Amino acid sequence: MSAKAESVKSNKFGIKEIVITALFIALVFVFTAFINIRLPIGGNGGLIHLGNIPLFIAAIVFGKRTGCIAGAVGMGLFDVVSGWLIWAPFTFVIVGLMGFMVGLITEKKKSHRFAWYTLAIVVALVIKIVGYYFTEVILYHNFVVPFASIPGNVIQVSFAGIVTLIIAYPLCKIANRMGLREN
Known about the structure:
This protein is mainly alpha-helical. The protein has seven helices and two strands; from the N terminus they run ααββααααα.
């Protein structure tokens, strides 16, 4: 196959990838909307949810594009339907970047997977903390109030990271056996 044909094939967004991405958009939304704890802290309170688990799984098992789209759309949609419309554009960018980076860091890693997965989750945590800190600075016009959201973000991503580290590799193997991913 020519290099150009190979490039077109690798950039193609096939039906299988569309279905998998749609499934993970739904999972991210459901895990964010229905499995959460609202915190009575910070300017807007805060929310600890499990939406990062399917986000990280999507990115690790199916790649950066699926992780990016599933996270951005799934959590952005949650913000829209939950009444936090002003947060949606920020969430779309921040969580999309989290999914993209997790997928980018972990894709095609055949050795030291646990280390790569851990690094990817730490990078996602940094993106979440920095992204939402500056989002709150913009929304609240205050540099101090956003610090109250950091502990909730750390708990949320750390818990999701632990669960993901436990189940990601077995899910990759299952997806490989089922022919759902290349590797």
